[in-house]
Amino acid sequence: GRTNKEVDYRTDYYTLGLLLYKMVVGSHPFHQDLKERSKLTHAHIAKNPTEAHTVDSKIPKTLSNIISKLLSKNAEERYQSEFGIAWDLKMCVDDIYAGVSSSLSKEIGRKDIRSTFKIAPKLYGREKEISQLLRCFDNVREGVFPCKLELVSGFSGVGKTCLIREVLNPLSKCQGYFASGKIDQFNRDIPYSALLSAFRQLMKLILTESEVKISQWKEKMEKCLGNRGKVIIDVVPEVELIMGSQPEVPVLSATENSARFKSTFCDFIDVFSGENPLVLFLDDLQWADSPTFSLLEMVLCREETKNLMIIGAFRDNEVDEFHPLSVMIKTLEGKDKTEVISLPNLQIRSIAQMIGDTLSCETEEALPLSEIILEKTSGNPFFVSAFLTKLYQDGHLIFESIKGKWIWDAEEVRKLDISENVVQMMSNRIQKLSKETRNLLSIAAAIGNHFDLSLLSKVTNTDEMSILSFIEPAISEELVLFKENSSSVREESMMRFRHDKIQQAAYELLSVESRPQIHHNIGRQLLKTIKADELDHKLFEILAHYMVGQSLITDRDEKLSLAILLEKASNKAKLS
Fold this sequence. Notes:
By secondary structure, the protein is of the alpha/beta class. The protein is built from 27 helices and 10 strands. The protein has helices at residues 10-25, 37-46, 52-55, 61-70, 82-97, 127-141, 160-166, 168-172, 193-206, 211-225, 229-233, 239-243, 254-272, 290-301, 324-333, 348-359, 363-377, 381-393, 410-415, 422-431, 435-447, 453-460, 464-476, 500-507, 515-529, 535-548, 556-575; strands spanning 147-153, 177-182, 278-283, 308-314, 338-342, 398-400, 405-407, 450-452, 480-484, 490-497. It has a 5-stranded parallel β-sheet with strand order 2-3-4-1-5. The protein has a 3-stranded antiparallel β-sheet with strand order 8-10-9. Helix 14 (290-301) runs parallel beside helix 15 (324-333). The longest helix has 20 residues, at 556-575. The two termini are 45 Å apart.
């Protein structure tokens, strides 16, 4: 808990390092801290022991290095397999018998191959697309274009989101700001949801800055927004923590309200894109509402917009020529405000590199298996990862400890079937989990792509410790992940599904008959626990759940509450 790290088999390697240290040195590496448990715990977490050969010069330096590697605080820096440990220890023993000087240090870890299966967390075959995104950012930053919409299209699972997240590190080094928003497939009717989510994230980041910096942001907002601050606070409540309470704005007609909202939001964007570049990432634009596209077009086409790069991802197979996104693209292309990067499936070489990194073998050795996987998955990265995982789970990929390598039977793999339905494949993976875990994932999917563990606890009437225990297998399977904020800090109570198709597969495990009750419960709990100043922002989300379960609402008071919420939502929609 203190290190925020999972316990796995490499913990045993640390223990082996402790035993070897005591055997060769004659004392515990933290012997001075043995009397106080708190000090000993701190030592194991934070202190590096004195190297064995420094304590006793007679101890071979190679052996000392082996022990130090075993005692690394970071599990990724320890040995990854017992084969690698055994190989290096044997090398050390052979040197001792051969009379090699103890001061001579040999390279260790050359035969250390990970014996546990884990898909290499890298992006493959996307060098051209990464370069294109970074070039666009440089052009915006240097003023070649004042602003640009860079769209990434492709089928589900082709790696659009992964590609965009890959360029975040280079972008974050340029003293600009980055924020992201995603449209949830089951709550897609919420107006401007991705844009508002991105700016709420940006406000939370700004609120972590110094008081002097926050004061500067307040001045900028007051200058750009004037007496219209309440327009933004109504949709991005965190702005009030920076600007303070703002006066109400005059009530206008629906058309005038919409025009005021759009012009105010454009000015609001100018606050953050004036000096340093602002990058916004909007995911799953195929599900966005028409007002979002109208606002994006207005932002990108106005002369005042500077230093702004918007990156959008969408599934081109779900967007026809009449889709609002297609209409916007056509308009913006004529003004040189956008370009579309079409993301293809992986080629055989890229798949071989992925397999080589995952199974610790040379790319050439992985080519025969890559050819079979390409044939069965068409090179879709999500399918490739899922199929490799299935091969391991079904015993077709085996780590041979004696040989120190992964082995497989290519002909057996060739005979296997793979579902063309990725949802069915994900569903099969979920079905292998316990009943409790499956039920939790299904209800979490009903909450949304991102879900709060405390809300899940209340909806299921299960304590949070049990929730974490039941959901741990899904985390291990990388079906769900802890959500990261814009500073790449893990938010302990928030989780997200790794992919929309996983969320869809989990949701479809719910019977059609049970869904209204579940959504009704989610809506009730959201309304019950939400803070007063959060209601405006969560209003459409709450109502989306209530409307699925509206047939179950029989209580007069609850019907009246729902009617008030619907009226409030109607007025809010008119203001936008």
